[in-house]
Amino acid sequence: MHTAIISAFESLIRLADKEKELVSSLFIPRQYARNEYFLREGQVCKMLGFITEGLIRYYTTNDKGEEQIFDFGKEMDFTCNYESFLDHSPSVVNIQCIEDSVIYCLSYDGLQELYTQLEEGQKFGRLACEQLYVYAIKKIRSLYNDSPEQRYLHFLQYYPDLQQRIPQYYISSFVGVKPPSLSRIRKRMSS
């Protein structure tokens, strides 16, 4: 499934055939069972992943012991706790597979090699970071400004295919409401 990884890179930069071989050689496939963790809170994130099959959730646990889901990852998405990955600090985030998943993994050193060995490696890093930054700013702004209904609409817009793949209580956590509140939101929206 290296063709999917190559396509993800080529959506941002040009790759020569030799560079495609390098990218393919550095990503190692790993299978994860449903509920297995790509990363647990307290661990240092040592891998950047590319999901070719399956679905993951990103969550933290608040001081009441409640899980708070803040994102999902699906096929053709990169996954990582970039904060931990870049500064080698313990993660405050859990990344857990919701479904059996295949994730192609790249080490920190492998990523550095891509930055230096690919002609447009630095450009890839910059463009990927710019996309992450814009996405993060939109999510933060939504948390402060949007109603739960608007956050639910954002979920449906950004993840139109996930509603049938994940439990409703995951969606309610992502939206920031309790499951009964999500049911009321959905009922109001369908009328």
From TrEMBL:
UniProt cross-references to SUPFAM superfamilies, sorted A to Z: cAMP-binding domain-like (SSF51206)
Top-level lineage group: Bacteria
Listed Pfam families: cNMP_binding
Cross-referenced InterPro entries: cNMP-bd_dom, cNMP-bd_dom_sf, RmlC-like_jellyroll
Residue ranges annotated for the Cyclic nucleotide-binding domain, each copy included: 30-116
Entries under Gene3D superfamilies matching the protein: Jelly Rolls (2.60.120.10)
Record's protein name: Crp/Fnr family transcriptional regulator
